[in-house]
Amino acid sequence: MENTELLCEIPTSVTPRADIINDLLAQLDNEQDSDIRAEIIRKLGEYPEPQVIKKLWDLRNNLENESDDFVQYEIKLSLHKVTNHPSINIDFFLGNLEVFQLKDNNSQAPKVLIDAALIEEFLLRNKTTLNREATRVMGLVLEGKINPYIGEIGLIKIWHNIKNLKSQEYANRSIIELLSKINVGQVDLKEIDLEKYPNVNLKTAIQVEIARKYSVAGIITIRDREFIASGYPFVGSPSLFLQSLGEDTSPASIERTLKNLGKAAMENEKVKLNQLLENEPQHNLFFEDNLLLFQGWKIENFEILCANNNLTAATVILCNTKTQERYTESAFKKGSVDALFTAFNEALAHLVKIKHHLKSVYLANLKEGQQGDVTVKVMVEYDGKEVITIHTHENILKAYFFAYVKAMIAVYAPKEYHPDIHSTKELTYLHKIGRRDFHGLNFSQVNLMDTPGNLSDAKLMGCNFSQANLSGFNLTDADLTGADLSHANLSKANLTGADLSHADLSKANLTGANLTDVKLDENNLTLLDGTILANTIMPEINIEISGESRLEKVGQLLKHIDPQSQSRILAVHSMTDSIWWDNPPGQKFWEVNKELIERKISIQRVFILPEARNPKHLQVIQEQLNSGIEVALICQEKAKDVEGYRWDDTNLLISENLSVPRNSFTARRTMNGQTESGYISYQTRVVETDKSIFNALWEKSEKLSTEANIQEQLANLNT
């Protein structure tokens, strides 16, 4: 025991912590005496460091090699101490991947990215159909037939979910085990070009980027439908993958199966999804099959019994999917829905403190007849907030109940709430019967084109209309504050008086739309970000904007001009800098000009020239004249007073739409010494004022023709 006494006397104040740990680990590797080994292991339990945890974990996995029960006990106790330490969390493991990550990975098995939700299903869920499929996939991992990868964000999600359901120590142990068998794929979010993924969420884009970075053979995920729009072909659900794999589970067969999923499988899934959305958009099938609630609880059963005493009895049974613990509650009310909601509330009170109250329930018939589908809209209030949920079902009581259950999930477990994508009928039929409030709901796939009815005065704040077809629809006075209208088709829609404050209109199509009196955010720039505004009846807005951003917005608006709209461009350019047109901003703007000429849109431009000119001035003027632009010249001195305004340091561009005057705009840039100011304005008064000044300047200018001697005309400008 003399060595043990020496070990315990290591002066921590003298020896650095890392040296102590290294000494202990070295002694442990060389020590055979059980008592001393036990003492070393106990001492290691005081140091929650990466190499210590890894060593204790390896010892724990090889307990059979330790013949002494006391040593085995110390291994378990020390491992418990270090994995239960408050500082050991998911950030700790991600910061020390080189210690815990799978070492010397020379596996010839196909690389497969496995969705974190699938791994979590394997670790935490009961033996459901989905869990059995997850178990089979993970079995292939454990057999070495799959070389598995997981995304860093997925690993973080698994740790937090296990910690919340079990404990931090349990989560830490699970992560250590996973890291010993699964590679962690990491990508820099700053390097992901999200323009490549316009129709998928960030989580899906990250997984595709990881798959490409690590050259995996495919992705197995329970979220396979979310990958349809990603452009990545080798994705399949566990069931699709296992069904295609069959009995041959060799690595070669696995790789072949993943490759064969390909585009055909994606198209097949897309067809099934479209059919589901078209024929049964109201059925959240996964929800109804499982009736999942939150935090591991589900609705095991509910029933309603009507008696002769005019009372309805309702019973709801909640079951914990892990512990099988149950709560059964009943209620007696005059109405079936009232009884069912009350029984559910009483059962729910066992899980959470009730803080909501039901504000309203509305019913709309989507089809006539006894077997017609009905949609129920529920609104509940809690902590001063409102939640709206919708469910459609051919069974009217299920429509009521499921809409209410989804509202409870949204209130008490918002992180577990997955909003449905609602159908065109659900939106329009509810509005038809006078229901106006739909805020926060997902209508990203509705098609309102040629649909009877309207959404006037509807409350659509924060709704998701991305990629929706709202062409020609009546949205007068609708509140679309904060709504996602990106990629939406709003062509010819009537948005008169609508509130578009902070709405996302990027890449939306507003061709021919009526935006009279719409309310916008403070800077109004949202309206110009990628939005197609051709022939749009615009609101009277004026946007203060200068520098390169003004030029970019102007170029973007010019590209959207409809050639059929009888539009023309009136422009003034002060050529104090003769090489501006050769700089990147000037070259880009010149390309826009050439595109307009090719599309038969006329351009008139007045060049304001300084007294000291050079050949570059002549070259720019000649090029624009030869391209088909009507060019006029005026010297700087004469431009200093036109209509009482000084033009020698001013650039101007007016886009005049003769077919739809309210689509005309003017853009001006002014230099005051070194200070630049500018605007883009759709205000009728400003457009007319700028047009009047341009006409006066044009009249005072020297008109050029391609046959004339430009050098001679330049010489005569000052006379």
Describe this structure as you would to a colleague.
The protein is built from 23 helices and 19 strands. Helix 20 (584-598) links the parallel strand 13 and strand 14 (602-609). It is 38% helix and 17% strand. Mean pLDDT is 84; it is low at 1-14 and 276-286. An eight-stranded mixed beta sheet has the order 12-18-17-16-13-14-15-19, sandwiched between helices. With 719 residues, the protein is α/β, with parallel strands linked by helices. The chain is globular.
Summary tags:
alpha/beta, single chain, 8-stranded mixed sheet, 719 residues
Strands in their spatial order, largest beta sheet: 12-18-17-16-13-14-15-19
Main sheet specs: 8 strands, mixed
Low-confidence stretches: 1-14, 276-286
Overall spatial form: globular
Q: Radius of gyration in whole Å, from Cα?
A: 35 Å
Please indicate the percent range of residues in DSSP E strands (runs of 2 or more): 15-25%
Give the helix level as a range of percent: 25-40%
Query: What's the count of strands?
Result: 19
Structure classification: alpha/beta
Count of DSSP helices? 23
Distance between the termini: 112 Å
Mean pLDDT: 84
Note the topology.
Layout lengths: L1 H7 L8 H14 L3 H11 L5 H12 L7 H15 L6 H6 L1 H4 L10 E4 L1 H9 L4 H14 L4 E5 H14 L2 H12 L3 E3 L16 H12 L4 E3 L14 E2 L1 H8 L5 H29 L5 H6 L6 E10 L5 E9 L5 E8 L2 H13 L7 E10 L8 E9 L2 E9 L2 H17 L11 H9 L109 E3 L3 H12 L7 E8 L9 H15 L3 E8 L5 H13 L2 E6 L14 E8 L7 E8 L2 E7 L2 H17 L1 E2 L6 H7 L3
Parallel strand pairs: 1-2, 1-4, 2-3, 4-5, 13-14, 14-15
Antiparallel strand pairs: 6-7, 7-8, 9-10, 10-11, 12-18, 13-16, 15-19, 16-17, 17-18
